[in-house]
Task: structure prediction
Amino acid sequence: EYSKTDVIIHHFGSLKERGFASSKVDMYSRMILHQLEEHPDDPRYAYQAARMYLGKNELANALKFFQKTAEIDPHYKLVFSEIAKVYMRMNDKNKAIENFRKSMELNPENPSPANNLAVVYMSIGKFDKAKELLEEQLKKHPENSALKYNYDEVLENLK
Result:
């Protein structure tokens, strides 16, 4: 049973650019950095700081804090994949490749780093390398739709 009312609901999430919610963002930022100071050896806070800087498009700071996370705990949340993605945004594909590889080594059961690496290879025209990588992963994860999608892409490009 629904009835009409005169109540207007405002969604302020999209007002960030206008500075309305930026004080909330600043408060959140300060909170994260404060937690990081209090717990310098907790990878969670370094990782959150990195994500926060990524959100502000401050790539150098994001990189710094993802790297700090990796120093504290290299197995934390595919952190080397995050580092690789920042390098992709900085257009440093060699560093991206290096870090996706490292992420693969540290997370052998997760197909995501290899899948991302295959995409990087495709972006630089190394379709044979991408194909090899995806075939390897599809043996272990035959039902993975992201792997299958990229494998089809590779085959298209190798025709």
